[in-house]
Amino acid sequence: MLFFLPLLLLFSTVCHAQYPEEKPEDKPYLKLGGAVRFNYNLSTWKDDQLERGGDFGFDVFRLNAEAEYKGIKLNAEFRHYSQAFGGSFLKQAWFQYDFSDQSQLQVGLNQVPFGIQQYNSNNWFFNMTYYIGFEDDHDMGVKYIHDTGLWQWQAAYYKSAEEFVFALTDPSPNRYSYDVTGRNKENNQLDFKVVRRLGDSLAHELGVSLQGGLLYNLNTERNGTRYAGAVHYEYKADHSPWNVKLQAMLYHFNPKYAAGAELDFVEMGAYGANYNVANKGEVYTAGVSYHIPVSTKLLQGIDIYNNYGYYNKRVSGFENAHMNVLGALWTAGPMYIYTDAAFGYNHPWLGPEWTNALAAGTPGETDWHMRFNINLGYYF
Known about the structure:
Strand content: over 45%
Distance between the termini: 60 Å
Organism: Pontibacter korlensis
CATH architecture of the domain at 91-329 and 346-356: Beta Barrel
Number of strands: 19
Shape: globular
Largest sheet: 16 strands, antiparallel, barrel
Helix content: under 10%
Structural class: mainly beta
Signal peptide: 1-17
Keywords: Signal
CATH topology of the domain at 91-329 and 346-356: Porin
Strand order of the largest sheet: 1-2-3-4-5-6-7-9-10-11-12-15-16-17-18-19
Order of helices and strands: HEHEEEEEEEEEEEEEEEEEE
Protein name: Phosphate-selective porin O and P
Number of helices: 2
Radius of gyration: 24 Å
């Protein structure tokens, strides 16, 4: 029996060497979170809603996941809205590998590097750029980010926008961010963005964004082109209560329509519905916010803001569009409460005209309209 004891010890040592203990950094990491939000709104152009004193209902339930194992990261967000607003879909989901503290690669449904990020706005409604597909847009592709502190540059290739069917059919509008839909499909898009940070605290961010890609027409089965460019500035500093956002951009969609069937607009869709957007134009946006710290048991801070957007449609006969959102964000523990007075002029979400507000508009009949909105969100 004693003869076999050294052999057993040797066998145990060899087997143990084949399965070494995982290093701490190799252990799986998983973080789950999410939010539940409800919404109250009162729209001046809806007589029935004015009679009721507004409506209060469900906005969204969302789940977030962040994971990492053996150096590969995952970031995903799934959202569930009512069926009338597109139902359930991914907002974002990508795999990530960090080459260093300064460089990373993202593959999947990630945010397009264009303009001020993460948002070109401070309010719940975003700014005009969101409604034509140039704010917090997420597409399917590969993105590389390099950030040295003084400089940041991003380069990306997107094979398509959110793709659900993988066939010669109209893209679904059941998505979070606005993309070209209808009888055209976004494909083979390139983006490049560079930001230079200035000042002692690097609080001033000056940037340039470029975008180019193709539009596949389902009728002609040919690719058209599209391009966009922007210059942008943002002031954000940890030591200052102020945040300033300024951006100017232009774009041009040039689909390959059939001869004699050319249109001056494309369809764009999100949240379960499409509308028309001018083929080319310029958008100018400006935003400012001020943070007020509060030290009470219930309330920890108030952010007061105003965001303005002007949309100059470069199509003859099309009426231009405006939006302005004045409001405040209230931070109360895990809750974020947006109270917004959103004013729109030729805006599909802020007025009675949906289909052509961002295309021809309603020349001769357009008025400013207002939607008062309270969004209550519990984030966990």
